[in-house]
Amino acid sequence: MHAIIYSKIRHLLSNVCQLDLDRSLADQGPFDLILHKLTDQIAKANQGNNIAKSRVERFCQFTQAHREIPVIDPLENLYKLLDRHVQYKFVQECDIMEEGCHFFTPAFVEFMDSDVARNKALMEENDVQFPFVCKPSVAHGSQLSHKMSIIFNEEGLRDVQPPCVAQTFINHNALLCKIFVIGHSHYIVERPSIKNFSAGNFETIFFNSHDVSKAESSSFLNELDETEMEHPVVKPDYRMLEHLVTRMRNKLGLDLFGIDVIIENHTGRYAVIDINGFPGYDGVPDFFQLLLDLLQSRLASTEPPFPRPVPPHDLSHVTGPPRDSSINSCTCIFQHLQKEPNCQSIYELDIANQMTTDRETFLPQDKSTECHDKEALLLLTLSGDQTNYAPHSDKCNSLWTAKNDVTN
Asked: Domain Inositol-tetrakisphosphate 1-kinase N-terminal, which positions (predicted)?
């Protein structure tokens, strides 16, 4: 399989490099396609980081001036996912959520402060019920975006940490369906989730959503009560989920995203509880090959798959005022062909760790350099004949370029 993918990428690509967002992008071209994961940089920009803001603005200006270059995915289409309140309103207004449909988004409201009386009134106005899940408004760019809580009563309203979104908790027998979308392909992974709860005199539960939904998760939050284990878990209808993917992909205008879906007990309705841009794709077999298929199809197409609206110049409306949070950005998102010319295999794509999976074999020219705290942009230039990729080390601005030392 590796040899097949290696041959395919040799045919597809002639130059892969990481773009330096701190200098003119026009000077680094020409480019035929841009693949990026800039969500962390956008989050930093919206939290007041001027360097990140300059990078995002430079990228937006360049892509708007060169709309003939395919971008996966357009930033203007990603904006609606970066803030959970904006995201949930968008999903709620999609026609697939219309009355009588099998899909819905649980009732939600945004809390901008810790005033218990005000927040209780907001809950009533928006039909949010106890228990509810309290999620940070910022959906990307920080470990804090995964820190959530379940609040069971009015007393628990004192535990909210604004700005946040309160979303009615839906009992779903601790089963989460994660849908990973790669262009026209998608893959559904079933993961552990939170057990059933009801309102009552319970203390607030704090948890990390990333830990609770891991494939190997064994948290007490995943364990159904004995009385509930007697009832069969409602299994997802994959045809319904495929329909959801098709509709949401067209609405979002994205090629790389993930949808978190749970199935409501007793009704069997599908609740969309989160959408993520460029997720980790953990558990997706042959993701690298699917990504290459997507890149090839986009390069071969003469028409963009989605309309590209003009993005806003002011990014502050996406996540509100600057928020203080710790950022852990490590986003070298595309792995590189093996440097040794006699070994025809490639490195696996590792979005989670953002590094090559074969550290013993991979020997960069500067072993002390790793690509941390730098957003990666993959640019594919098909005008050359280079096929062997090797890193050129620059501590802050790592630029990956092709080396013409392998014969085809």
From this structure: 15-76
Residue 287: predicted pLDDT: 92
Residues whose CB falls within 8 Å of the CB of residue 402, separated by 6 or more in sequence, listed in order: 14, 15, 16, 17, 384, 386, 387, 388, 389
Which CATH architecture fits 80-287? 2-Layer Sandwich (3.30)
Q: Please, are residues 277 and 191 in contact by the beta-carbon 8 Å criterion?
A: no
Q: Give 212's contacts (C-beta < 8 A, 6+ positions apart).
A: 192, 193, 194, 219, 221, 222
CA-based nearest residue to 264, from 256, 273, 252: 273
Helix (H, G, I), strand (E, B) or coil at 91: helix
Question: Which residues have a Cβ under 8 Å from the Cβ of 88 and sit 6 or more positions away?
Answer: 105, 108, 165, 167
Instruction: Give the single-character DSSP code of 282.
Output: T
Is 258:203 a contact under the CB 8 Å cutoff? no
Phi-psi region of 210 (alpha: psi -120 to 50; beta: other; left: phi over 0): alpha
Q: Quote the CA–CA distance of 197 and 147 in Å, as a whole number.
A: 19
pLDDT band at 10, cuts 50/70/90?
A: low
Reply yes or no on whether the pLDDT at 252 is more than 90.
Answer: yes
On the 0-12 / 13-18 / 19+ scale of CB atoms within 10 A, 227 is exposed
Provide the pLDDT for residue 234.
78
pTM of the predicted protein model? 0.74
Q: Residue 84: is its pLDDT beyond 90?
A: yes
Q: Which residues contact 360 (CB under 8 A, 6 or more apart)?
A: none
Q: Where are the beta strands (DSSP E) in 214-350?
A: 256-263, 270-277
Domain ranges in the chain are: 2-79+288-403, 80-287
Query: 41 or 123: whose pLDDT is higher?
Result: 123
CA gyration radius for the chain? Answer: 22
Q: How far does Cα 349 stand from its chain's mean position? A: 15
Which tokens is 402 given? 């092709």
* CB-CB contact of 192 with 212 (8 Å): yes
Q: Is the Cβ–Cβ distance between 136 and 143 less than 8 Å?
A: no
Element (H, E) at 180: strand 175-182
The helix (run of H) or strand (run of E) holding residue 370 is: none
Give the C-alpha separation, 234 to 239, whole Å: 15
pLDDT at 142 over 80: no
